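Justification of resources, computational component.

The compute hours requested in this renewal are based largely on the per-chain cost of generating structure records like the one below. Each record pairs the submitted sequence with a full structure-token output. That output is archived, and it is also reused by downstream analysis tasks.
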Amino acid sequence: MSTRVTFTFWLTAGLMLPTAACGQTRPDAWAEVGRILRTENVSSTPYHRYNLPRADLTLRIGDIDASAFGLGAWLGFAGDAAAATMGGDLVVTSDELGPVLAELERQQIGVTAIHNHLAGATPQLLYIHIQGQGEAQDLAIRVDRAVALTGTPRPVPAPSSQPVQIDTALVYRVLGQSGSASGSVVQLGFQLVDGRVTVDGVAVDPNLGHRTPITIQMVDQDRAVASGDFAVRATSAMGVVSSLAAAGITATAMHSHLVGEEPQVRYIHFWADGPLTEVLEGLRSAIAAAN
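The structure output for this chain reads:
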């Protein structure tokens, strides 16, 4: 049996690092941002992250509870709270999309991408990538007005940890990277874009703009599913899609998250379903293609 665990991907929206020096903000300024959003700050300076999972929804793909893969909305802030760069990823239903976009426009919050991540999921979800710059508490108030138009439960409860039911040693050995695990789910992050990525000449921190999250879930002892998005240079994108297809892994979306970045970055979402060893080997081949 699969165990539902809510994870939030480490990335998905591009953020530019502000020129303001980090570490100048009073600690209670970031606590106030959490109070406004009614969720905890789960990352420390110079980057502050606030998770807003869609725990009101259960996401299904066929016979799989895929809630671990597609419900992780979040906001992130870089730099000083008085002059922060904000980015994030809002998860909305098709009915919520129009009202949320209209509110983001009223609040002058930039939208950099709107798209699907998965194919054949119920309910159909869309992902709105957002960005903004300014005073962190003001940005939080403005985004909160859009989040309030969704069914996002708040205050956000602290995530629960469950006994690990997946062979993490095998996962980490095959993929060459450690991560975090709870219940039947393990999550890892990779950096597959070499060198700097800039927007308007300003460097984008890889942790905020172009890391690759991969989540793997055991369905039973003979079956695993996996999803995530490969963030790769545009010149590598076709090779990654081909490698995934050759391994029996479906690319479910390919698109941009950033606007005007150099070099261009593409984000390839995928869905894998099969024996754990085969899923891992397919992911390893795609990672090699990205590099």
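The first strand starts at residue 47 and ends at 51. The mean pLDDT is 89.
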